Records
---
Amino acid sequence: MKTLRLNVAKSEYDKSINTAAEILKNGGVVGMPTETVYGLAASAYDDNAIKKVFVAKGRPQDNPLIVHICDLGMLNEVADDIPEIAYTLAEKFWPGALTMVLNRSEKIADSVSAGLTTVAVRMPSNPVALDVIKVSGLPLAAPSANLSGKPSPTTANHVLNDLEGKIDAVLMGDDCDFGVESTVITLVGQTPMLLRPGAVTYEQLLKVLPNLEISDAVLNELKVGDKAESPGMKYKHYAPKTTAFLVEGENFTDFVNTKQNAVAVCFEEEASDIKIPKLIYGSKNDTLTLAHSCFSVLREVDKFGAENVFIHAPEKQGVGLAVYNRLIRAAAFKVIKL
Ligand code: TXA
Ligand code: MG
């Protein structure tokens, strides 16, 4: 299959959005930019189209997709028995990087929910994504547009690197603003629960949802037989081929300088003292930059051909929690505490 590159510069914008919408209405799959990461979109009503998404990514069948909508009318189409608090959260955080798990409506294709009775929904803020949803008139199921297990794509070229020839088209938008995936919370069940940290922070959500709990899976590896509230959390993820370790503590520079055949992923402040090959992912306290660059940096690690990569862990607060959550998975939960 030839993958179309759809240019979204001003002169070609309308034409490209229309082409993407037509492909989606005809059961095709399209890579699209969002403010978090690039998504691989298909109609949430079309079981066949959704199956193509799973095949292109090599995604495990039991890992459900997020449905992207453009207005609250669409929310009422894709979810049922929506609690009042969902509308309060929507007003505060949508369009934006918050995904809510709700009871699903019967209209949603079974494969979107991977057999669950729930559906994850978000309204993205990226105008390209919003326009494709609007023009197609379809809620779009879209997981991140990477091969399953690889770092999520934050540029159109990352999508092509992973999926060229396997999908119908890519909307060649800008690099993603945020760079890690949306915050996922579930509002189904007794207590609201944070399933995946993201740009909308736990601290921000607590102001609206004072009883919000953090799922154990956010910072810990699930044991065999544990029930995953969010199936995606149980898989190894985001990993380079180089063996990765997450390193916590102040003495990172001394630690990595004793290592051979290794790469360091470090903060700006310590870079000049590090004597082994290194990649900088931002300033220690600038967690937005760390989020923005973490997946690109993970995609670059393998080019050194080293045996191990040591990644300096960010703080686990605010946006730092989202970055830490992705990096601990990239390291397959191998944490070194200095
Ligand atoms: O920012 C994002 O959320 C990006 C962009 C494209 O919007 N999408 C994304 O999709 O990250 P994906 O498929 O890579 O991650 C979806 C996560 C998975 O961890 C999945 O298990 C969880 O959401 N999820 C989806 N539906 C769910 C459901 N019904 N119940 C619990 N978790 C669900
Ligand atoms: Mg993903």
Note: Residues 34, 36-37, 39, 63-66, 99, 101, 113, 116, 118-120, 124, 142-144, 181-182, 184, 195-196, 230-233 surround threonylcarbamoyladenylate (ligand 1) (CB under 6 Å).
---
Amino acid sequence: MRDIVIVGAGFAGMYAIHRFRSLGLDLVAVEAGTDVGGTWYWNRYPGARCDVPSIEYSFGFSDELEQTWVWPEVFSAQSDILRYANQIAEKFDLRRDIRFETRINAIEYDEGANEWRLASEDGTTFRARWVVMATGCLSVPNKPALPGADNFRGQTLHTGLWPKEPVELGGLRVGIIGTGSSGVQAIPELAQQCAHLTVFQRTPVYTVPANRKAMRPEHLSVFREHYRELRTMQQASEIGVSNFNPRSLTGAPRRTGRLLDLDAEARKRLVEDNGVGALLAFQDVYEDLTANEVANELFREAIHDLVEDPVTAQRLAPKTYGLGCKRQVIDRDFYVTFNRKNVTLVDLGETPLERVTATGITTTEADYPLDVLIYATGFDAMTGALLRAGIRGRGGRSLREKWADGPLNFLGLGMQGFPNLFTVTGPGSPSVLCNMLVAIEQHVNWIGECIDYCRTHEVRTIEPLAESETQWASHVNEVAEGTMFTAPTCNSWYLGANIEGKPRMFMPYVGGYPRYKNRCDSVAAAGYAGFEKS
Ligand code: FAD
Ligand code: NAP
């Protein structure tokens, strides 16, 4: 029997291998894909890239890595982030402990032996004292069951399962369903590659232009010199982002001031001079419904300025929810792409999809012939991968049963009834509201120290107390209440609203990274207070 099985070899699983090895633990990692990188391995669609500056979206655990890696752009493309993952795998010799093409579908606790037994789809089995679920928050693609979808004779693709081989779209009629972050990134690129692109939009999106700058070598040198300060600033930031400026050598707060303090003229000028992204810098846009609606209206007007056809502009303008409800989307030329002659927008709100046919999509209004159909329809987020892994704890109770009304755990790290099993960036932690690499490092470090504590204190099992879970759940709800994230008009994947039948519950912790980390640290300092140890 091994000490630990790590499930998943994205950034979380990769860092876990490195960290737990340093504790002298005997481990193995299992990964469904053929190589490392997780999100950046699976999401190879045209236009895929980071929405956090790459200097920030990078690991801080190795000086050598920081000092040698070169980010070519300020916000990196998927291919560069995947290269970074590969470089980490090589530098730290991670692959020798990873079993690829191994998807785990049963993880069962044997109470008598105090061990976890894992089995993969192909029948390989593993036994371990500890299990670390590094299975990702956005790793289970959501492919809605559209009527007739199986009849489609063209090629079907999902942005979250994009093939490794190049996809040739020249001369083809392509349809894409979905205008979230993935669709918005893919649409301008696809429009340039294919003969005709039809965008099937159910809900319009608020998207702001991305920073497209190349990394200047002199800035990279400054970052390298000041990485430790930058990392300290990340730790003090609500979202794990320092905003370190290589010119002033200071970080910047994310939001300041109130939009409502500006008069109508000044607000208009602000958007004209700085673009719609400027609206996101005001605190009241996220806290005050009046300010929020003022910002939403300015946003809608800006769409009309960018999109030539007024009917298309009207369709692209969000009306049913406000800024701040969903993860902010960033784009490169999204709105102006609809000025191209080879792009059609179909508003599924006005003319719903009736069925997929052998040759395309039929709505209540028209038939759209297609050679390729792309689903940019998102993920069964945060709980999807954990529930699909077939986890059963004490007494054979499944996680699915425990979470029937929504995820219940302590600190997003572990569940009562599932001893010695940890979740990295689980629901109830800052996770997807944070720079994920900061969140991942913090969780993996905490889990490593907890396991080390158990070994040195002869603790056989550790798991949260039931009351720790209920208290944490009410705290998570309390801090989310009254924010734009949980507004009644908001339907986001944070709430599970994108998956039919999923309980509506705001899943990530919105109280801020520093506050959360302090809580984790004080739990550890008090000998894992709130956990039951045997
Ligand atoms: P993942 O990268 O999802 O890796 C999990 C791995 O576990 C996968 O490789 C999967 O195959 C494997 N796995 C899952 N279940 C099993 C199983 N049962 N058996 C075996 N293997 C399994 N975050 C940011 O902070 N900034 C960004 O800009 C950003 N951009 C993103 C862009 C896209 C397109 C997407 C989808 C997500 C983005 N994210 C971003 C979130 C991103 O998921 C995280 O930043 C990070 O990469 C997550 O790493 P992870 O290792 O936790 O999970
Ligand atoms: P998403 O935000 O959930 O968007 C999915 C889109 O598909 C929505 O427009 C949704 O419409 C539509 N859709 C879903 N089911 C549909 C159906 N049955 N019929 C018609 N339309 C349907 O998913 P995503 O775009 O993949 O992004 C998920 C998350 O991944 C992001 O929020 C972000 O955290 C991360 N991500 C980040 C980046 C980046 O910039 N770094 C890029 C991609 C992804 P409705 O809104 O009506 O449901």
Note: The chain has a mean pLDDT of 97.
